[in-house]
Specification:
The structure holds 2 protein chains of 2 kinds.
Chain A lengths: L2 E3 L4 E5 L4 E3 L2 E3 L5 E8 L6 E7 L7 E2 L2 E6 L4 E6 L8 E9 L9 E2 L3 E6 L1
Parallel strand pairs in A: 2-12
Antiparallel strand pairs in A: 1-4, 3-9, 5-6, 5-10, 7-8, 8-9, 10-11, 10-12
Chain B lengths: L3 E4 L2 E4 L5 E7 L5 E7 L5 E9 L2 E4 L6 E3 L9 E3 L8 E8 L7 E2 L3 E5 L1
Parallel strand pairs in B: 2-11
Antiparallel strand pairs in B: 1-3, 3-8, 4-5, 4-9, 5-6, 7-8, 9-10, 9-11
The chains are: A mainly beta, B mainly beta.
Chain lengths: 117, 112
Amino acid sequence: AQTVTQSQPEMSVQEAETVTLSCTYDTSESNYYLFWYKQPPSRQMILVIRQEAYKQQNATENRFSVNFQKAAKSFSLKISDSQLGDTAMYFCAFLATVNNAGNMLTFGGGTRLMVKP
Amino acid sequence: NAGVTQTPKFRILKIGQSMTLQCTQDMNHNYMYWYRQDPGMGLKLIYYSVGAGITDKGEVPNGYNVSRSTTEDFPLRLELAAPSQTSVYFCASRRASSYEQYFGPGTRLTVT
């Protein structure tokens, strides 16, 4: 079984600054994906970024990038030039591609991010 | 293209009542999922389906049932509602060739 841990229940950042959200995971699988999802007050789950474990290069999507440390089982999310619309809950999620019937996602407990003007 | 839709958006049930949460996707995705999100927590998988006629249990299936008679629809049935089922319920889907799941807007259910 996999576990995903987000050790920062809440964080805040000033608008236009950079913030990093932490995520660690525990697994014995070698083939997997990692995701960051954003959940704004509207409740909608929005995929922010994903990383395939076999890729060494860190994924980037505009202002969002990850620091994937496979040996340390760490997957942090960096948000650059923070905007008020980034205020949301952020969930780290793990998906094993083998030995995972249905390919279920395992979620961390979330980090609530507030961007201050 | 509406994506994944869920009805209702909100519902209050009395203990012991039953209801069905509806989920429909128009992307012709084979895989569909039901998750629940308790306050301040991440999502946990209730049931999933890999195609019409095929369903299986997730992490927290007790108190729920599902069916998948068509590719588009994946309803979740609550029998004998209990306060422990107070939660937000999300439906998701994905195509077989990608691991990215697309989520519906959620249903907030309160059981009192």
